[in-house]
């Protein structure tokens, strides 16, 4: 079997979990290199024993680097076909293309980007134009877009408010850099902006100018939920909305991406859930042409699965 050479740039939560996903599921993808400022020993320890997702026994045989400048990485010598850019820093075309300058063939950025095309599995990947560098948006984008795609196709969306109740992430300290006690950002509900609405517009151009969003960062370790309040062009009951979403979840392109459940859920029930978006039917509400839908998502694990899946489809 001919293998595709993959490089992981940034071995944080997404880089680590994507590595696990590739080693578990995609024998045609070979993780040839990992670049991170931490030591090889500490990275392998994190890979093997994760505080949220448990132990992992498959070995990782890769070249390890600690290079700050992607342009200086030996991607040409290693014949790297695809870089998964997971640092959160090189998210725009000007910086992400440093991987191409280093010799890589393609790059997927695991974050929203203002200057790169955005492709989401199940939503708009069928329109992929074989660009060298693309973005997969954020976990919230992947959680909300499948629901919005279905609602817009079936009922038409005039306007939508998006509110993500999002688990704590390491980036939160940057939101309030002047706080003396950084731990406060891990113990509070923090209202913040979200780029998900803008990214959704890139994936679903029909919704341009129709989506506004906000994020509430909450002190939970993982799993988030997006609250979508939509003004529809056509009236629909909660039962009809749930039925339409359920039907869409059982067929391509959203099969394996969107899940619709009837059980009452709590966030810990969704840890390790592989779907990008999990609609809880009991929370769906409707007033005429105003609809409210809640969709859960494991903002780490599910996103990492989509990233590994996208990598396998890109080459």
TrEMBL record:
<dbReference type="GO" id="GO:0016620">
    <property type="term" value="F:oxidoreductase activity, acting on the aldehyde or oxo group of donors, NAD or NADP as acceptor"/>
</dbReference>
<dbReference type="InterPro" id="IPR020829">
    <property type="entry name" value="GlycerAld_3-P_DH_cat"/>
</dbReference>
<feature type="domain" description="Glyceraldehyde 3-phosphate dehydrogenase NAD(P) binding">
    <location>
        <begin position="4"/>
        <end position="139"/>
    </location>
</feature>
<dbReference type="Pfam" id="PF02800">
    <property type="entry name" value="Gp_dh_C"/>
</dbReference>
<protein>
    <submittedName>
        <fullName>Type I glyceraldehyde-3-phosphate dehydrogenase</fullName>
    </submittedName>
</protein>
<feature type="binding site">
    <location>
        <position position="110"/>
    </location>
    <ligand>
        <name>NAD(+)</name>
    </ligand>
</feature>
<keyword id="KW-0560">Oxidoreductase</keyword>
<dbReference type="Pfam" id="PF00044">
    <property type="entry name" value="Gp_dh_N"/>
</dbReference>
<feature type="binding site">
    <location>
        <begin position="13"/>
        <end position="14"/>
    </location>
    <ligand>
        <name>NAD(+)</name>
    </ligand>
</feature>
<feature type="binding site">
    <location>
        <begin position="194"/>
        <end position="195"/>
    </location>
    <ligand>
        <name>D-glyceraldehyde 3-phosphate</name>
    </ligand>
</feature>
<feature type="site" description="Activates thiol group during catalysis">
    <location>
        <position position="166"/>
    </location>
</feature>
<feature type="binding site">
    <location>
        <position position="299"/>
    </location>
    <ligand>
        <name>NAD(+)</name>
    </ligand>
</feature>
<feature type="binding site">
    <location>
        <position position="169"/>
    </location>
    <ligand>
        <name>D-glyceraldehyde 3-phosphate</name>
    </ligand>
</feature>
<dbReference type="GO" id="GO:0051287">
    <property type="term" value="F:NAD binding"/>
</dbReference>
<feature type="active site" description="Nucleophile">
    <location>
        <position position="139"/>
    </location>
</feature>
<feature type="binding site">
    <location>
        <position position="217"/>
    </location>
    <ligand>
        <name>D-glyceraldehyde 3-phosphate</name>
    </ligand>
</feature>
<dbReference type="InterPro" id="IPR036291">
    <property type="entry name" value="NAD(P)-bd_dom_sf"/>
</dbReference>
<dbReference type="InterPro" id="IPR020831">
    <property type="entry name" value="GlycerAld/Erythrose_P_DH"/>
</dbReference>
<feature type="binding site">
    <location>
        <begin position="138"/>
        <end position="140"/>
    </location>
    <ligand>
        <name>D-glyceraldehyde 3-phosphate</name>
    </ligand>
</feature>
<keyword id="KW-0547">Nucleotide-binding</keyword>
<comment type="similarity">
    <text>Belongs to the glyceraldehyde-3-phosphate dehydrogenase family.</text>
</comment>
<dbReference type="InterPro" id="IPR020828">
    <property type="entry name" value="GlycerAld_3-P_DH_NAD(P)-bd"/>
</dbReference>
<keyword id="KW-0520">NAD</keyword>
<feature type="binding site">
    <location>
        <position position="36"/>
    </location>
    <ligand>
        <name>NAD(+)</name>
    </ligand>
</feature>
